[in-house]
């Protein structure tokens, strides 16, 4: 829908920016997003492990395997979490984070639930807050929000970047270890086999 945004004497570009900011605040903006969604760069406040946990949960309840959690899948999810919702309740839950207005949750919108919960942006009686609390994914954030000043925030950002690298390294080490174990098992199996074939 077109909304006439009048910002007198502002340049056209500034005016467009103000219009967009207004639309975003009103919840009427179509979000502009990069073609490829990268949860690790967009949701920096979560660790890789947390995002992986959320992804596992998302996949678990995306029973249609279409990359979305629709109303029925959300219904089932809330029942499994022990907090069944009414039809209207479910619709409202989706509406709270449904940025592209398609009536279902993409993985990005699913992450938004935890982002909003951690940032304290959900009402106490919000079904989404219930979902976040019951999901057993711990997303209590003290991050940049709690930093007293810019330099402290920078320091935290740096430490979270090195934490991120450490997590990646740990994952790689784990994979290496598994690969080594597989090699040993294969070698042992070959030895066993050759003992039998002699």
UniProtKB/TrEMBL annotation:
What this protein is called in its record is EFHD1 protein
> What SUPFAM superfamilies does the record tag this protein with?
EF-hand
The cross-references to SMART domains, in alphabetical order and at most eight, read: EFh
CDD domains per UniProt: EFh (cd00051)
Instruction: Check the record and name the PROSITE patterns matching this protein.
Output: EF_HAND_2
Coiled-coil segments = 154-188
Q: InterPro entries this protein is in?
A: EF-hand-dom_pair (IPR011992), EF_hand_dom (IPR002048), EFHD1/2 (IPR040365)
The Swiss-Prot or TrEMBL record annotates one GO molecular function as: calcium ion binding
Q: Which UniProt keywords apply?
A: Calcium, Coiled coil, Metal-binding, Repeat
Q: The EF-hand domain covers which part of the protein?
A: 49-84, 85-120
- Which Gene Ontology cellular-component terms appear in the entry? mitochondrial inner membrane
